[in-house]
Amino acid sequence: xxxxxxxxxxxxxVTTVIVSAGVLGVxxxxxxxxxxxxxxxxxxxxxxxxVVAGFSATMPTVAKAGQAVRLGDVSVTLEVPGTLRxxxxxxxxxxxxxxxxxxxxxxxRFATTMSEHGQTVxxxxxxxxxxxxxxxxGGGRPVVLRGSAAVPGLVTDGAGTVVWKADSMYLKLAAxxxxxxxxxxxxxxTSGTTLGQIRVGVGxxxxxxxxxxxxxxxxxxxxxxxxxxxxxxxxxxxINRDPRLAPPSTPDGINLTPLRVLRxxxxxxxxxxxxxxxxxxxxAIPVGAQARLRLNVGAxxxxxxxxxxxYTYGHTDPSPATGTALGFGFMPTRATVLTSQVxxxxxxxxxxxxxxxFPKDESLPSPxxxxxxxxxxxxxxxxxxxxxGVDVNVGDRCQTDPLPLDLKNxxxxxxxxxxxxxxxxxxxxKINIPGFRGCGAGEDLTPxxxxxxxxxxxxxxxxxxxxxxxxPGEVHSCVDEGEREPRTFxxxxxxxxxxxxxxxxxxxxxxxxxxxxxxCESASWKISFKRGHYLSMYRIASxxxxxxxxxxxxxxxxxxxxxxxxxxWSMDAPADxxxxxxxxxxxxxxxxxxxxxxxxxxxxxxxxxxxxxxxGILSDYALDAKHDTLTTDLTSALTVSTKSQCDSSNSxxxxxxxxxxxxxxxxxxxxxxxxx
Length: 676
What we know:
Strand content: over 45%
Distance between the termini: 30 Å
Number of helices: 4
Structural class: mainly beta
Radius of gyration: 28 Å
Number of strands: 41
């Protein structure tokens, strides 16, 4: 599957602040040194092998107070015995002394930790892709594989030494162009487990006292707003400790670690827009908001159940909204409502808490949905009332007491695909508006205001934009790239279309005529679009049917039946469209089965790092709403499942091998798709 480069960079930045629970605060100056050789013992059912991993990284020698120490890319060199390489990659029935053709590829993941002041946390290093420099030789000679990846950094909470250490290693290898085998080999570190360390000088202590989060006024302040935006590095401080804003309960069976010492998190900004609906009037009032956030200031995890909860907090600027409805005897009534984020009754902090639940490792299966929760208290103030064009003076103190605001959004799951807080989403919730007070100038109009507004039958729907960082030079900077607006879709007429492709092709290597390939005379997908205005980018459509006609598997020239399963597959539009009328879609939940007349059966989906089957994801499919086409992305792939059964030496049929779909679907009838 192809990943958008911006998405990869952004995920790396997010991981930087996620992983350092318990060792984060505001840092001082630092000197860095990372370089190590770690010996691992890897055991198969037949033998035990020694594998040596070398680590190297260039790290900054000075860190500014309050900013992350960026580790950048870590390079890995793996020295693997040739006998182990053969044991992991050799085809069934071959002899141990048979020469191995092609180079070696694979993936490795290191369980690493960071520790400071007696606290140890998961360093959350990513999976490294590996490749050898040339063809492998026989005779058991060692194979050297190399790879690199961007790893998380940290911000420390004061003077001391932060130490990275290695624990277990999970290794997967493959011969030639094949992907890795069905399951990783678990290896144990035996020596040299200290990877590197940073000596941190004295820095300013982190502020953790609750405080109001108003934007600064000095343009020279370190928390000054990004030029031309409503965005700043505010808020700073802490999550809101008021128990009325506590996180929601976890799913049954989840046992989270304690919440450690908090860290400053990453400053972020977001815009939101949507509608508040007054139940008594049946009227929708447009609302908007500008939020300043601190992303991932803390985390709790359940390693056994692959579950993580992150903590974020923020503050929203007061947002006035004006709407018109029929009230006061079915007369046109206009009013302006100012929504202000406030402290709970008797509380001291007015910040909102934002929680997110998601898999700790998305390369492994998870039964849990990804959720986002916003919890705060707000106060409503009414002004500018006019009934049938006549102004009604309600004074300047017509307002409610603080009321709880509890919103949530489902960011998906393994079947429909997942997203996260910083990529925006649709938050919804019910609101119980308490009675107003102080309404009227000389005449008490509070009962009339209550009669039209107060009560439990009110709701709020907010569409969040993609978040941005208020600092220049950062990934998705508000300064460099501008703030994103909330993004929704209008689809008309909606309903089902039939998309056809002639021919339909999927292959291991589309540029190699000798590769494994399935070609069908035609394919038809039934795509069902939602209909309406202000539709979320998530599940905007789904594939409810798929047929493949007269298929042949090459290079064997075997008639093959290709079938889709686990329908419907979901379709999202998570990426901004840089070309007018063209939207990059993500297909999730994809499963295909190819059954040849020779008994070869191939299953295509996504392969988890542990070798398990997961729903396939195909990204960056270009939907051209003007020309009614859907074009596949040639770098987005499905992988061969471990349950596939095929008596062939073709590496494209081996578990984990990547197959890509190629071509363009044309569909009808026409769908008018716009982003209002």
